[in-house]
Each structure stands twice: as C-alpha cells, then as structure tokens.
Design goal:
Layout: H1 2-37, H2 41-46, H3 50-71, H4 73-78, H5 80-100, H6 103-112, H7 124-129, E1 135-138, E2 141-148, E3 151-160, E4 163-169, H8 175-179
Antiparallel strand pairs: 1-2, 2-3, 3-4
Helix pairs in contact: 3-5
Length: 180
C-alpha cells in the first residue's frame, strides 16, 4: 500500500508543480489586468519591476536618439554641438521617464486613456483566457503582445520568486517618429 502511495505522489507532485508554475504566471498577468481595469495603483505597483522597466525604457530611447542623430544631417553639421544636444535630449528623456514611469504616472495615463472603456472586465474567463495570450520565452520569462493601431508592443514578464513582474516593454522602431 505504501508503495502505491509513493508512486502516486511521484506522479502527482510534478503535475502539481507544473500547474502551480503556469498558474502563478497567469495569476500575475491577471493582477496586472485588474490593476489596469480598476486603475488600482497598489496592484500595478506590486506587479511591475519599476526600476528595471525605467532603465529598459531609457536605454531604448537613448539608442533611438543615437540612431536619429546619426541619420540627421543637421546634427552632423553641428559637430560636437550636435553630440551635446543629443546628450541633453537624452537627459531630458531620462528625467521624463523617471517622472512618469511609476505607479502614479501609469495611473494618470490609464485615467486619460481613450481606450480604457475597451478593456474587458476581469473575470474567471479573462483569467483563464490570459493563457492564450502568453508566450513563454524561457522558464522564468513570458511576454504578451499589446496591439494598438496596427502597432505591436511586446510586454515582458520575468519571474521574481512566486510572482511575475513586468520588466520590459518593447516599442516598434517607428514609435519615436510617430511622436514627432
């Protein structure tokens, strides 16, 4: 009898671990969904790795600024002054990112969003349906792709203990051109 129980435990334990692994990812994604739907700063704060996200956004924007600088004939003609202007623009962007990429800034963006009424109410169906949106790219990372006006924005989650937190958002190459 004990041998049968041991075999059953050895079979069921890995299944429970796999289920819990996927469920924690799904639950964290659902908590972000709830945080956005209800504009709940506490939920948003708990499921976003803000320092890492800010750093990734700053790096992305600085790289894009550098690319634009290299393309721009006007800035090339300015020589060292063009490099200085690009550096100042980078510092301005870093200050803006530090100011707005936080729970309060995100909450303000949600509040002002014209698309907030399009977000489905979080339910058991959206919890389970979230699994269809998740793309695992490692044992500690998955992403979902947010689509807005024919542009795609992958949002990356990394495992931090038993929770998963947003750590990076990738922007389309032309996102800065749209801001001009």
């Amino acid at each position: 009898m004990n041998n049968k129980k041991l075999k059953l435990i050895l079979i069921i334990s890995p299944l429970i671990i796999i289920f819990l692994y996927f469920f924690t990812a799904l639950y964290s994604f659902h908590q972000i969904h709830k945080g956005i739907y209800y504009n709940n700063k506490k939920l948003i704060k708990n499921y976003v790795e803000w320092d890492e996200l800010r750093e990734n956004i700053k790096n992305y924007i600085n790289i894009q600024l550098l690319k634009e600088t290299q393309k721009s004939d006007e800035l090339k003609d300015l020589g060292e002054l063009g490099v200085l202007l690009t550096g100042l623009a980078g510092k301005l962007v870093e200050t803006m990112v530090d100011s707005y990429i936080n729970p309060e800034g995100f909450s303000l963006l949600i509040e002002k969003s014209e698309k907030k009424d399009e977000i489905p109410k979080p339910t058991l169906v959206t919890l389970l349906g979230g699994f269809t949106l998740m793309e695992f790219d490692g044992h500690s990372s998955f992403y979902i792709t947010y689509k807005n006006e024919d542009q795609e924005f992958p949002v990356f989650f990394n495992r931090k203990g038993l929770t998963w937190k947003i750590t990076q958002i990738e922007f389309p190459e032309n996102v800065l051109e749209d801001l001009k």
